[in-house]
Design brief:
Blueprint (H helix, E strand, L loop, with lengths): L1 H15 L1 H9 L6 H11 L7 E5 L5 H17 L10 E6 L9 E5 L5 H10 L10 E6 L9 H22 E12 L4 H11 E7 L10 E9 L1
Helix pairs in contact: 3-4, 6-7
Bound molecules: S-adenosylmethionine.
S-adenosylmethionine binds next to helix 4 and strand 2.
């Protein structure tokens, strides 16, 4: 009974949510697109020609936004060629994802060697730094058990792995944006970020529900 009420309340909230309606209107697969949009509007993360990696990309609204933003910026600069994106977007998820035009999608767990090998094959030519990625995005969350200490530990672990991945692949002036949860383990994630990045900033976009402990952490410029 309580569970039914919870499901009913969730459905009611979902249907009346302005971001859900806006996503339907604007063709985004998930309201999550507006979290990235807001952070990008504030921090100017996406720029033409960038190599962007989206960890935990399904159903694909962050990829849709990143592609749309790249095209918009290319058009503003007069460098847009129809059908040829100046940047590269690589998306990885354990779940299948409907194709997004111009986005390279890899299905699998980003922690697996095979997936990493495939990923490296997709990166465009090397630069003098060896590392080639400008921006890593991670909206990943572990399967939640409802036991907050266990969930925080899993979230922390996933964040650390996204950080390791970024240290390995980001250019010196690159950036990592991850989703995390306020609660036990959060300050440890911030400390780990501070060891690696010169600039670390928390972000809570309006599209992230107030009652949710979800927050985002942005690290820029590797030390
Ligand atoms: C909240 S969804 C992402 C939504 C996406 N940003 C969007 O806008 O459509 C989180 C995704 O992370 C994926 N995920 C979680 N852990 C992962 C892992 N270790 N490797 C790859 N994908 C993972 C899940 O399968 C899930 O699809």
């Amino acid at each position: 009974m309580a569970k039914n009420k919870f499901n009913k309340d969730w459905l009611q909230d979902h249907l009346s949510d302005p971001y859900v309606k806006r996503a339907q209107r604007e063709g985004f697969r998930a309201r999550a697109a507006y979290k990235l949009l807001e952070i990008d509007e504030q921090d100017h993360l996406i720029r033409p020609g960038m190599v962007i990696v989206d960890l935990g990309s399904a159903p694909g609204s962050w990829c849709q936004y990143a592609r749309q933003r790249l095209i918009e910026l290319e058009k503003k600069q007069g460098i847009h060629t129809e059908g040829r994106l100046s940047g590269t977007i690589v998306a990885i998820d354990m779940l299948p994802m409907e194709p997004v035009q111009d986005v390279h999608f890899l299905i699998g767990d980003f922690r697996e060697d095979q997936v990493l090998l495939e990923f490296e094959k997709l990166l465009p030519g090397t630069n003098s730094e060896g590392n080639r990625v400008d921006l890593v995005l991670s909206d990943m969350a572990p399967n939640l058990s409802g036991v907050s200490t266990a969930d925080s530990a899993r979230m922390g672990h996933l964040a650390e792995l996204a950080l390791d991945f970024s240290v390995k692949h980001l250019k010196k002036d690159g950036a990592l944006l991850i989703k995390c949860f306020h609660g036990s383990g959060y300050s440890q994630i911030v400390e780990s970020f501070k060891k690696v990045f010169k600039q670390v900033t928390p972000r809570k976009p309006k599209a992230s529900r107030d009652r949710s402990s979800e927050t985002f952490l942005l690290g820029r410029f590797l030390k």
